[in-house]
Design brief:
Blueprint lengths: L16 H16 L1 H25 L3 E7 L4 H6 L8 E6 L6 H5 L4 H14 L3 H15 L6 H20 L2 H25 L5 H10 L3 H23 L1
Antiparallel strand pairs: 1-2
Amino acid sequence: MTVAASVPVQAVSKLPAQAAVLVGLISLGLVVLPAFWALLNHFTRIAHEGAHAMVGSVLDTRVTGVYLYRKTPAEDRQTPDDDGPSGKTFIRDEPGTGFAWRVVGYFGPSGFGLAAAALIKHGLILLVLWMGVVLLAILLPSLRTVFGFALVFGIGFVLVSIIRSRNPEVESVTAYGLSWLLLLSAVRGVWDRRDGSGDAKKLREITGLPRGLWYYVWLIGTVAAVAWGYTMLV
């Protein structure tokens, strides 16, 4: 992926409220229907593992690799004690540490979705798309699976193609769709791991708090993010 030297941030027309709601409802349908979720689950895992890697890097720990696998949501739930068969992030930190980068994973899609919604609120549609390209490009060197590399590169290529199309309507719908999908898929991602997760297991070891508590923390946080995002998108 080639990122332009100067990222354009000029305003592109926002969608009318009715159109924004329609994009949200379509996104909700894609997240709820099993056939579509089997594909969107990978999209959510990119944001999840990307959040792990981003926060880990900020904390000056060493990100040794991000692994994205071609697994279905059903296969994910078969091993709830794992970090999630469809994605893992390995970070070298000191024993007993790692709270921040572990807790942020399930909030990752929500965080990226809210950031996109905030930019959209100010009419910065193109910046949403360019930020997606930049973040995916930053993630690429950390990927350790062919599937993960192809998936991230492919999504970035699609975003660049949409930007190069210079079609304001397509750019707007794509930006809104990305924000809605990130926000809504965050809730589905938490719900699917309600039986437990590797992150919750590690957080219990670090804090002593029960695994089930972290599920409710993530669920409440992601649902609240959808409500907040709605106020900015509609």
